[in-house]
Amino acid sequence: MPEFNRDPRDRRSLDEIEAEEQAEKAEKKKFNIFSRAYRDGKGVDKEEAAIADNPTFLNFFRLCWRKLNELLSVNLISIVGNFPIFFFLFAMSGYMSIHTTSPNYAVYGPLWGARLFHSSAASSALWTIYGRTSPVTVHTTGDYIFMGLAFLLLLTHGPVRTGATYLLRNMFRARPVMLLQDFFDSIRRNLRQALIVGALDLIVIALLAYDIMFFYLNFSASNMMTAMFFMSLWMVVLYWTMRPYIWLQLVTFDISIWKMIKNALRFTVVGLKRNVMVLLGTLFLAAFEYALLLVYFPLGVIFPFVILPSVLMMMGVYGAFPVIKRYMIDPYYENA
After folding, report:
1. Is the confidence at residue 18, as pLDDT, over 70?
2. Which of 11, 107, 193, 289 to pair with 307, CA 20 to 30 A apart?
3. Roughly what angle, to the nearest 10 degrees, separates helices 153-172 and 223-252?
4. CA 53 from chain center: how many Å?
5. Model pLDDT for residues 182-211, shown as the tens digit of each residue
6. Are the CB atoms for 251 and 165 separated by under 8 Å?
7. Helix and strand counts by DSSP (H, E) for the chain
8. CA distance 85 to 87
9. How far apart are CA 112 and CA 103, in angstroms?
């Protein structure tokens, strides 16, 4: 069995940590004037606990159906929490940009002058070929301001993903969930690491996206470019598989970020079967979203703002947590 890292100073089990969290919730609920917002839920039935004990392919759909309202709420919290993305979308919409045209060929100017000086059949024929223009969008100062505001996502992405992962983990484990309180409590406990991991996550995603586009545009330039394109695709798959493990370790254990990354890399191998299923599910949802955009564009735009991100995150938690439990949590109780 591979050796996974846990901080030796942290001698508490997962149950002990959750008991402390529940005690904090009870204390806050006792002294909070907004008691209605923190009232107890209807609890967890036996069927939900059975799903957590047997995380099969079919049970994933049963879990999503039972937790549909919570998934919609988590999706809304994630969208609103990552509000800087709306600044970027507004900047890219072109509402404040200058829309003009630009010549396709360098001889556009001389041909235009020749036609003004002396129009002939030859100049008209050349103008038909070389006088074409293409639309061009010029960004204004307002666009750059909103693009700059979009970088606030570096501060919101990590905490929001941390809180959402904690909620989804508890839903999967059939634990009672109070959405807003649990969300903000998880952020408060893990704020420093959440900010660092969130910033690193966005940087890695941006670099991988740039690599994919660069090597795709130069795909046929050389054998090296072709090989680097497929290498970039492999890196995207590898990192996408690692991400759920990193976020789950962040909200479950008190370990360093470097240990989270090393453990996540190992989990991509030892949890290969579940990782492949999560990857196939992700590709299916991506293809479904693409089909919605082709068939009915407004519905394809709305779908991610309704439920798509939360389902993708739940899929990652559903695939990754049983592996973490087997190799990091269960050995703790065995050794104890």
Report:
1. no
2. 193
3. 60
4. 27
5. 999 999 999 999 999 999 999 999 999 999
6. yes
7. 17, 2
8. 5
9. 11
